[in-house]
Amino acid sequence: MGMQGFSKFNYLFNLARARATPCHSVILVEGAPDVLRLAEAGLVGVALLGSEATDLQIQTLVGLGKTILVAFDNDAGGQRAGERFWTKVGGQGVTFMQWGVPAGFKDLAEMTADSIRTRTPVPGRCPIEKGGRPTRRLGAARLPEGGWRHGRGRLPDQDKATVQGTRR
């Protein structure tokens, strides 16, 4: 008789912190170690606990009402995950952009907190904000020419769900 396991597909690691932050953006990563490195750098991130975003995770991210900075791993799998993420998020009322991992690093967990802080316009504060406001909004609800790297879409009302996953 085995114990039923934890379904990582229903959760985002560090979601409570992302909800509580006054920041207008959140950094989306694949794994918990990336979130911990971001926290060490004074930034807020959430992790999919894998590379594939489920519909429930996407609805939860949309429900945050924040800009999503996507920082998936710097490998072929992370690139494919980003493309799949764009396909799912396009048309869902959320602004997002790639906040890629620099060459030479597999993921944010391999970077130092200082090197992560230097990537932000206001070190130790919200990555794309100055004076508490987003510095830019991005794109339209279609795949941008040249890839998935940024965009904006809208979630149809009938498809919105609460964070608990029940329909409104």
UniProtKB/TrEMBL annotation:
GO BP field: DNA replication, synthesis of primer
InterPro entries: DnaG_primase (IPR050219), TOPRIM_DnaG_bac (IPR034151), TOPRIM_dom (IPR006171)
Keywords for this protein: Plasmid
Pfam families: Toprim_2 (PF13155)
Keyword Flavoprotein: no
GO cellular component, one term: cytoplasm
UniProt superkingdom: Bacteria
Region (Disordered): 120-168
Domain Toprim: 24-94
Signal peptide bounds: none
Protein's UniProt name: DNA primase
Source species: Tautonia plasticadhaerens
